[in-house]
Amino acid sequence: MSTELASSRPSSWPQPLDGTVTPRFAGPVSFMRLPQRPDAAGLDLALLGVPFDGGTTNRPGTRHGPREMRVMSAMIRRVHPVTRLDPFALCRVADLGDVPVNPFDLEATLEAIAAAVEAVQRAGAWALAAGGDHLISLPLLRGILRAKPELGPLGMVHFDAHSDTNDSYFGGQRLTHGTPFRRAIEEGLLDPRRVVQIGIRGSLFAVDDMVWAREQGVRIITIEEFDDLGPAAVAAEARRVVGPGPAYLTFDIDSLDPVFAPGTGTPEAGGLTTREAQRLLRGLEGLNFVGADVVEVAPPFDPTGGTALAGATMMFEILCLLARARQAAGLTVSDVVGAG
Question: What is the pTM of this model?
Answer without folding.
Answer: 0.93
